[in-house]
What we know:
The structure holds 2 protein chains of 2 kinds. Chain A is 74% helix and 0% strand. Chain A is an all-alpha fold. Chain A has a single domain (15-433), classed as Formate dehydrogenase/DMSO reductase fold (Up-down Bundle), CATH 1.20.1630. In chain A, α4 crosses α10 (190-223) and α5 (98-119) packs antiparallel against α7 (138-158). Chain A is globular and about 75 Å long. Chain B is an alpha+beta fold. Chain B has a single domain (4-223), classed as 2-Layer Sandwich (Alpha-Beta Plaits), CATH 3.30.70. Helices cover 20% and strands 18% of the residues of chain B. In chain B, β4 (85-87) and β5 form a beta hairpin. Chains A and B meet through α7 of A and β2, α3, α4 and β6 of B.
Amino acid sequence: MAASDRDRAIEDSLIRPVFETSRTVWIVVGLLLAVIAFGGYQWARQLGEGMVIAGMNQPVYWGLYITNYVFFIGISHAGTLISAILRLTQADWRRPITRAAEAITVFALLMGSSNVLWHLGRPELIYVPLLYPQPLSPLIWDVVCISLYLMGSITYLYLPLIPDLAILRDRSPRLRWFYRAAALGWEGTPEQHAWLEKLIGIMAVAIIPIAVSVHTVVSWVFAMNLIPMWHSAIFGPYFVVGAIFSGIAALLIAMAILRKTFRLEAYFRPIHFNNLGLLMLTMACLWFYFTFAEHMTVWYGNEPDEMAVLNSRLTGPFSTVFWSMVACCFVIPLGILSFRRLRTIAGTVVASCFVVVGMWLERYIIVISSASYPRSEAMWDAGRYTPSLVEIGLTGAQFAAFALLYIVFAKLFPLVSIWEIKEAGEQDVKAVTDVLDAQRTEEA
Amino acid sequence: MADWGMAIDVDRCDGCNACVVACRTENNVPPAGPDQAAIGRTIEWLRVERHVDGEFPNVRVRFVPVMCVHCDEAPCAAVCPVSATYETPDGLNAQIHPRCIGTRACAQACPYTVRHFNWGEPSWEAPLEQTINPDVAVRWKGIMEKCSFCVQRIRRAEDTARGEEREVADGEVQPACAQACPAQAIVFGDLDDHESAVSQLAESPRAERPMEELGTGPRVFYLKEGDWRGSVRPRSSD
């Protein structure tokens, strides 16, 4: 097959999902909209009646909203960080997966930070911290870092999209005005290529410290307080590790779904699942190390206030959640990912589902168990907090909105970077085109 | 300028809760109702905790009135993103209700758990709405509130004294809880004035400050005989 034919084949297969929408996708969109509408209705109720209909109480002033906030911002580390590291280390297998990963970052960040809207007692005053910030508050550090990360990751998603936008400008049957404006006059000249590579390189370096700072600062919202099992120096790195861990899991799940839905089997190949599975295995071990170190020091120190929280996790009201978390985040992924035979697409996706659930449970335990056992023993909540319908509805709506944003993205832009695949080494392209040929024969 | 503080003699407290009622009336603290109270939504600027020492049959029960201790280094003021809570020069930990946006970060940061959130719109069942004190603003849903050391009484006493061109006398300012206490267990005044009753009590060997080891610098002193083994920290074993 000639080089131009091959390029054409790659282009066709990657642009097709943008313009062809199956019935299933429409049904899924309908279901997602229904879940979002339910969440919206619950939110409207909360706006009217106040937090009184949410499950939070004294002393659990922070509940599911903060849990989701930390969880989604953790997921957001999937993309940008992974793709930046892989770009900088010039890992060639990254080419098909970077865009799918970077899109996760942007959407997860939007979902995570939107929790502030329903968490605040007075959401109508959400702009006040921007006008009159109190710089010593960790919440202000959060605002700064997350805004910076959001802008950075949108730029980082957009830059490598430009050459593909130019392809769409030339080939799209609809929205040509939009693609023309967004492609910024891309002609693919060597000069333009040099500029683009340079900018992507700069962004890849710049985004890493920003990403690390984001989850460190999110952890400091807890760790800066003199609260048992929050006030811990390990929290910054612990949260960053957990974030990357859950991010990889989210990426693997997304890749498996996109692969089936948009027929991207030629691009998201078993080697990607194997490599990301190995990366996730490393993070699982790191996660266990941090969790062990964190709980071990508290147990040995035996400080009564801290022990109240620790015991609630090990044997008390939070023990079911705690041990499920250990199983989901460490025991099960370790059992699956350690074996080459199980590091298949199905295997890594099963492990990823457990990791995502486990990491959500971890956020839940960190927020709720410490809040439930304050130093003032008379105010112990002792596991009485149960999320209400409002909180559950809004949680569901966030997951649905995340999926919906992803579908909309897939209907506007190719999920795999076309120009980067074309640019890949001969061998890599051959692997892709072989699979494409096989698919075509199958269809014929 | 005064340096306001409080001393509470827990050996005098018999747990009658008159202070709780007085505080609620003076400061327009809204009643939560039995259903909300059962799920931890009570707003009580001042609560009386029951602490049990020892095991049966050698049991000793103490009642401890607990309110905001107006820390010198308040963790709540540090974490508020909009400065809705801050430390005044005369030692109060003040809450600016209109500025609060309801992050509840202050409540989560407070080691004493004495900050309260308005989960819903406060309401008083008739005829209780007629008891609302015109000197204190009624708060609204979505914001934090807590003990103010009856700042309205402090400011009124200061205004009166300024009008008469004199200093505020010791004992002239009485928060509602101190005024209502039949056992006179609560004493309020200027900690800078070494002659004041509250200073005398604060310097007593019986005096301790709650969770002093955290370095928050509380301005409420608890006085009691020393069988609590070095800590005034609430610890019950029941």
